[in-house]
Structures are given as structure tokens and as C-alpha cells.
Amino acid sequence: MARDEQTKTPGAAGPSGSGGKVCVACKLPAGLALRAFRMRDTVEVTLGGTRDVRMAQQVGSPVKLNGSAVPIGIVPAHRIVHGYGLTVIDEDVWQAWLKDNKDSALVVNAMVSAHPDEASAVAWASENAKRPTGLEELAQDKDPRAQRLLTSGLVGLGARTNDMPQAN
Fold first, then answer.
1. Where are the strands (E) in the chain, listed by range?
2. Does the predicted TM-score (pTM) go above 0.70?
3. DSSP assignment of 68-85, as one string?
4. How far apart are CA 100 and CA 145, in angstroms?
5. Is 167 left (phi over 0), alpha (psi -120 to 50) or beta?
6. pLDDT (tens digit, 9 = 90+) per residue, 81-119?
7. From CA 62, how far away is CA 59, in angstroms rounded?
8. Residue 58 burial (C-beta neighbours within 10 Å; 0-12, 13-18, 19+)
9. Angle of CA points 95, 101, 107, to nearest 5°
10. Domain boundaries of the chain, sorted by first residue
């Protein structure tokens, strides 16, 4: 999918600003804390006196997005659909975060995406179920990252084989 098409997905554009709620789909295993900031002018003390600087100040409390990982044997407290954890949050919080992070890899690569309701989030997650995060487990037989480990000298960290030199 081209970069232009990715940024035009419903999650990247976000629902229209109506002050309601949105359902955010997050593919990161541990979820994500959305934080909004505003820039303010302040004075910084330096060795030579003071200087005027602009400083980021957090606005409100962080909003936690649910992720897709859940401990084994524990029933998740939130809905997980096709690898995306769903969270309903205020649309204003999403729009403020998206304004500051529109070029983030999380948005461009559709790791987080907002939708007007849960049904559209589930449909979108279904379409994007095979999208990799880069945080998946390493498949030894067909993952290109596995070959890099074998050629980098990291072999032998696991079980001992007969063709490996033995320590005396």
C-alpha cells in the first residue's frame, strides 16, 4: 500500500471533530499512552543569566490505549480483534494527539487507528489483520530476520549441537 493511501485510511484522517467518542484500534502488544502537549514560553536559567525558551507542557492526563497482549490464562478486560486492542476514548483527545503525531510511524503504518464506532473498527481491523508490527515472534524457517541472526555470529546461544566446538 502506498504511503498516500495509508495516510488516507479512516484512522489516519480520524473521524470529524464532534466532541463525541471514537473507538481506537491499537496493534501494539502493550498498548500506548496518548499524551497531548502545548508549547509555552518560559525563562530558563543558564550559567550566563537567563534566556527565553519554548517548553512543551503536558495537557491533561495520559489516555491508555489497550494493546493486543494478554497474560496466558487471563481473560482480557477489553476486546481484541484481529490483533488490535480496542479502546473507546474522547474524540477530542484523539484529535489533539493525532495533530501532534500525524507523521508518526504509528499512524502512517496503521498501528493505531480511530473509527466512529466499534463496528467500523472491527471491520477495519479485519482488513488489516495481516499487517506486521515488527514485534511478532521470530519464525525461524521463513522470517528474513532469522537469517541475519545466523550470519551475525549469534549461533550457539541456544542448545548445543554436535558440529559446535566444545569448551575444554
1. 21-26, 32-46, 49-65, 80-81, 84-90, 112-115
2. no
3. S---TT---SS-EETTEE
4. 32
5. beta
6. 999 999 999 999 999 999 999 999 999 999 999 999 999
7. 9
8. exposed
9. 90
10. 3-38+56-151
